[in-house]
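ugh ok so i messed up the first submission bc i forgot one of the chains. this is the corrected input, ALL of the components this time, i swear. 394 residues overall. if the numbers dont match what u have on ur side tell me asap before i send this to the collaborators (the ones from the other lab, u know who)
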Amino acid sequence: MLANYGYNDGSGDFFITIDTDKCMECEDKPCVAACPVEILESFTDDYDDHVVGVVEKHRNKIRYSCAPCKHASEERNIACQKACPFEAIKHSW
Amino acid sequence: MPEGKRENWRWEESRWENPDIDWKKGKAITVGIDVGSVSSQAVILVDGELFAYSSMRTGSDSPNSALNAVNWAMEGTGMTLDDIQYTVGTGYGRVNVPFADRAITEISCHARGGIYMYGPTVRTILDMGGQDCKVIHCDEKGKVVSFLMNDKCAAGTGRGMEVFADLLGVPIGEVGQQSLDVDVEPEPVSSTCVVFAKSEATGLLRSGWSKEKVLAAYCSAMAIRVKSLLDRAGMEEDFAITGGIAKNLGVVTRLEKQLGVKAFKPKYDTQIAGALGAALFAQALLAKEEKEEITIATDCP
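and heres the new structure output, hopefully the right one now
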């Protein structure tokens, strides 16, 4: 499943896309621990698969929550993407 | 209520019962309850067949809203809560359904309910809810393949339409049809914010625009807003719309025109898709539980 967490408002589109089919294959889910602001969590979804998603309280503010990994003046170093061994995480902005 | 104080946002609550089903002869009675931000629905299935449903406004208290919805669906049938074998709660208030056996997200439930309502060829379901909008892609069994949800802003949702119905004094059930009574399609109002769209509409009314023209401009803005979500999520036919806005021809017609795709015509109340999906999950989970019990009983020496 491609799960898109985030929002679209007057300032643009801000979505994190997680390919949960890949998460199911990943035992350790290192992205969860790698995130410096604890945006990600592992959980059991509606189909009883163990996957990763964005914590509910961050979904409507991910533009700001993800800011520590998105310095405008430095090379991007997105911790969750870097930690994911399956390239399952994409950011839309 | 004093004359002239009619609440135009107030949409029609509904209840339906299948007269051809005698629930007392049924083996599996399952219920899905969708406690949404604006409306609550209860759907009762008897052996997987749609027996009854209710759709009403959500109150300030989620457990009561769930109870009111299921009580209304059962009304006059002789059924009580004790007759229900499995209940699944969904929607924003899903964790607050006191008699639910399990809570399942509205995304999974809308996919499953949408396939039941529109058939297994549907691949894209657009749910235009009270305070959010979801694009869901699913397979022929109703399993979610991908989803995208926007619930940060009221633009493109039912609540935004309620605001406009009240502003213009047009009953919400007539908004869609009246918005189509224009000779030339006007430029849309702001599609990014209901508050700005409302102030823009007030200005247009003052400058002499008719109510129909303003409604057309808002329905068009809503279609643009929703299309941007569909553009991001991707469109795969067949296409169906659920939720309250699916009843608004002004938005649906304009969206179809922008997409160049026709949406399936609904056979059921489009607001029950989530609760229907929840009831179908309940049926499957009940069957699974019963199978496990039989296996355990057979395995016992």
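quick check: Residues 162 and 251 of chain B are 13 Å apart (CA to CA). that seems consistent at least. Chain B has two domains: 14-114+271-299, 123-263.
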